[in-house]
Amino acid sequence: MVEVLLVTGPLGAGKTTAVNRLLKTEVESGRRVAVLINEFGAVSVDGALVAAERPELAGVADLVGGCACCSLREDVVKTLQAWCDQPKETRPEHIVLETTGLADPSDLVDLEWEPSLQGKLRIAGVLTVISALTPLHHLQERTLLRRQAAMASLVHLSKVDLDPSAALAWESQLRTAHPTLPLVQVWNGLPPYEAPNPWLGGVKESPPHAEGPSFGSARAFHVGFDHPVDPEALESLFQSPGPGGELLRAKGVVRFDGWPTRSDGSDRWSFQVADGRLEIAPLPLPPGGTLPPPMAVVIGLGLDGSAWKQALRRLERPPTGVRKKVILKAE
Fold first, then answer.
1. Could you give the CA distance from residue 48 to residue 263 in angstroms, rounded to a whole number?
2. Per-residue pLDDT at 213 exceeds 50
């Protein structure tokens, strides 16, 4: 049967980094692997990043505008069925399913019992990625985070190199709550060589449901950029409290004003905002030569859509004599 690995964890924990690393390992091992990425919002940023890094995959599918564990579950099932029904010589052997940080993995571990998927796939494990930079009190206050940890067959504690002391505190709390849970610290995006194989983790029994911040209480907005953006203004926007609401996550693809096209032919840069940190990385030119359009996505609780869109538009630096769009109200 086709094996499916669920990758879960809070927004901004580093799931896409973990997924890209998993996919690289699978491809280097000679296995056909596909990836299904669920993102909260109307556009897919993570899908563009994965497609640019791993063009040799057996399949890449994006699910946006909802949550794989509830509103988009039917689409998840259809995508998995289409891959499982391919001829043996092209069918993926492994599938990585990256959930949005607002998804409850306990609502996905039963996918193998869907009538159209029975006997075709099995859930191999649940890899939960948790950032060491996440405030430690979130483990007590955020119900969804506790469920993501409780359902894990393996935890990757990411961004340890950025705050080793915080990582030790996180590891202590997680081991106290889940004494038998396999957990490894991830330094500079890499787990230790002797880390457990996430494909061998199996599936736990789901804990009881409880209320807490989730897909239903979050909002997402996106803006497409017509012009390059000011890198210093971008940094200033995301290092300040912001124009309203609690920002959980921001990410996007941009061209920077004054930054030249790189030697690989790409002028795109990806940015990620999580745990109060802004990270920028070059986005390589895909083999087909088609670069993703510049855009930004913000996700949070109680966000003022108009204010955020206006703030993002103010980052643009159009050429002399060119007018830029102005956001008048939230779409």
1. 20
2. no
